[in-house]
Write a structure and sequence with these properties.
Blueprint: H1 2-36, E1 40-45, E2 48-51, E3 60-67, E4 71-73, E5 80-83, E6 89-91, E7 96-107, E8 110-121, E9 126-128, E10 131-133, E11 144-145, E12 160-167, E13 171-174, E14 196-204, E15 210-222, E16 228-242
Antiparallel strand pairs: 1-2, 1-16, 3-7, 4-6, 5-6, 7-8, 8-12, 9-10, 11-14, 12-13, 14-15, 15-16
């Protein structure tokens, strides 16, 4: 009996140690499985299904700064975009910066690009290779519904998401206006009233600077004359992206 009770704590310790090792192995396996997940996009256009091929990862990514909240001014500023007539310029707000990331997925017959757009106060960002980017301790992607940024690359008031689609038989289409600033756009938030974009899940991959985002979308796409060409339905995406947004150094 005495020997049994002496051995019992040792057995408990060994069992606990084995369980801890098993849990660690399982946790590592989950992280490996997350990292090995391929990027994926799937959607329908006019009843035709488009999807990335199996094991097809994001093939191109980018990031950019731009002036935010552009207004007409008779004085040039840090962010000045062309002339708007005699002695008038499109000038960004002096203390604000627009930062956006982009990811492009290719599929048979075309490609689709997702742009995530956010306006910041300049003091909220840090410099990285001549570009202002979010701090590394911040997660750029959040679970939730996103508006479509209708004036992306124009006057840059809107935040949210912007989509660019290229199809072999239809050419390049966008969810936003591509008219130059000197022209007034007919597109606004109501142009996407029946649309949606939502990030459903953000999973961090431990030991990396990556997260996996998954979501769904539907969107109206327009040509360069702002004519609605197609509607994208039943869209799904899974993307392995940098948690704090794209930049030159991680």
């Amino acid at each position: 009996m005495n020997r049994y009770y002496k051995l019992l704590p040792l057995a408990i310790i060994l069992l606990a140690s084995a369980c801890q090792k098993t849990e660690t192995l399982e946790e590592n396996k989950i992280e490996v499985d997350l990292y090995s997940k391929s990027d994926s996009v799937s959607f329908y256009v006019n009843g035709k299904h488009y999807t990335t091929e199996v094991d097809s990862d994001i093939e191109k990514y980018g990031y950019r700064n731009g002036g935010a909240n552009l207004r007409l001014s008779d004085t040039k500023g840090k962010w000045t975009y062309g002339s708007a007539g005699k002695d008038l310029y499109w000038v960004g707000a002096p203390d604000s910066i627009q930062y956006s990331t982009s990811y492009t997925n290719y599929f048979p017959g075309g490609s689709i690009e997702f742009n995530y757009v956010k306006n910041y106060k300049e003091i909220e960002l840090v410099e990285d290779s001549n570009t202002l980017v979010p701090r590394k301790d911040k997660i750029f992607y959040k679970v939730g519904k996103y508006d479509y940024a209708m004036d992306f690359k124009r006057r840059n008031w809107d935040e949210g998401v912007a989509i660019e689609l290229s199809l072999k038989d239809l050419g390049g289409l966008t969810s936003f206006s591509t008219l130059a600033n000197r022209f007034e756009t007919q597109l606004n938030a109501t142009s996407q009233n029946d649309s949606k974009f939502e990030i459903l899940k953000v999973e961090e991959i431990k030991g990396t600077k990556l997260v996996i985002i998954e979501g769904k979308f539907e969107v109206n796409l327009f040509d360069d004359q702002e004519q609605k060409v197609v509607r994208v339905t039943d869209g799904y995406f899974r993307s392995k992206v940098y948690r704090s947004g794209n930049r030159s150094t991680y």
